[in-house]
């Protein structure tokens, strides 16, 4: 079924798991992402950048995601990732996206609160969920690189005020992750996440999931991460697989021979991550 971010993260909180939020980079890979979720038996968030949405078309993406969610009977939320442009947010909502992220993290704190609040009012009036961001996530965000020294970690006291004032449905936290990190892994600041989780009760979001060690997943999930973004790992693997098949296949062979293996690779990764996101080996609490 077609769901909002709020609905799927509520399920995740109840089950102490996290929902995989996977960036789709083209339409080809989308059916296998949703089939992967079906096979794992968990909800999924499909997210697009503004540029991907423009390339494919907002309405086309909404129609295909809704159709796949219904055909496969999977809970799917469709989310606009890292939108700083309010017109793009309005376009996504008008087309039928069920969730959007307003990324005001580069704005001064007060302005981030004010603008996020306006976006929340607009989106909630139309039944759409909103993710906000506080602090800066490292790596590259939409082509703008964030230097290590310019990284600002989320401060728990700011998070409390931000959530109270804006009414966001989920909060992206800056705790040491980096977008686009696929050659190495990062050291996540778990103590900081714990502090934020203690004082803020909205679902928390990990960005730059490709660079997070899988052994860190349980601790992140047990401390409130309810949306876990993975993009680059899918992109890199799809491209590597497609490069190989395109290199080996005759030019007059159906394109299926080139893209099916790449889509399959994406599906395998989605399933692998989603199985870990179920957090089945939770610590047994005594008493
Ligand atoms: P990666 O591409 O590093 O996995 O990050 C995805 C993300 O956080 C999208 O906002």
Automatic annotation (TrEMBL):
Binding site for dihydroxyacetone phosphate: 180, 208-210, 229-232
Keyword Phosphoprotein: no
Alphabetical list of Gene3D superfamilies matching this protein: Aldolase class I (3.20.20.70)
Active-site residues from the entry: 81 (proton donor)
Residues annotated as binding Zn(2+) 2: 103, 133
Chain positions recorded as Zn(2+) 1 binding sites: 82, 179, 207
Any one GO BP annotation for this protein: carbohydrate metabolic process
Cofactor note: Binds 2 Zn(2+) ions per subunit. One is catalytic and the other provides a structural contribution.
Pfam families, alphabetized: F_bP_aldolase
Assigned keywords, A-Z: Metal-binding, Zinc
GO function term, MF aspect, one: aldehyde-lyase activity
Cofactor (UniProt): Zn(2+)
Protein name per its UniProtKB record: Ketose-bisphosphate aldolase
């Amino acid at each position: 079924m077609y769901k909002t971010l709020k609905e799927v993260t509520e399920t995740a909180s109840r089950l102490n798991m996290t929902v995989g939020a996977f960036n789709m980079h083209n339409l080809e890979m989308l059916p296998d992402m949703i089939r992967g979720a079906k096979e794992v038996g968990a909800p999924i968030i499909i997210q697009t950048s503004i540029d991907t949405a423009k390339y494919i078309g907002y309405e086309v993406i909404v129609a295909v995601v809704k159709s796949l969610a219904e055909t496969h009977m999977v809970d799917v939320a469709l989310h606009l990732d890292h939108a700083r442009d309010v017109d793009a947010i309005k376009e996504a909502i008008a087309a039928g996206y069920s969730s959007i992220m307003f990324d005001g993290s580069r704005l001064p704190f007060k302005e981030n609160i004010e603008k996020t609040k306006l976006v929340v009012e607009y989106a909630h009036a139309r039944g759409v969920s909103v993710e906000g961001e506080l602090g800066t996530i490292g790596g590259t965000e939409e082509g703008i690189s964030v230097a290590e020294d310019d990284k600002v970690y989320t401060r728990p006291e700011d998070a409390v005020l931000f959530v109270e004032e804006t009414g966001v449905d989920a909060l992206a936290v800056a705790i040491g992750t980096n977008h686009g990190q696929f050659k190495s892994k990062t050291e996540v600041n778990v103590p900081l996440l714990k502090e934020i989780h203690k004082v803020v009760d909205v679902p928390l979001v990990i960005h730059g999931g490709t660079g997070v060690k899988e052994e860190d997943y349980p601790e992140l999930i047990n401390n409130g991460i309810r949306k876990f973004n993975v993009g680059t790992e899918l992109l890199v693997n799809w491209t590597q697989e497609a490069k190989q098949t395109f290199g080996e296949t005759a030019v007059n062979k159906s394109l299926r021979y080139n893209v099916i293996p790449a889509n399959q690779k994406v599906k395998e990764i989605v399933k692998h991550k989603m199985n870990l996101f179920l957090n089945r080996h939770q610590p047994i609490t005594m008493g």
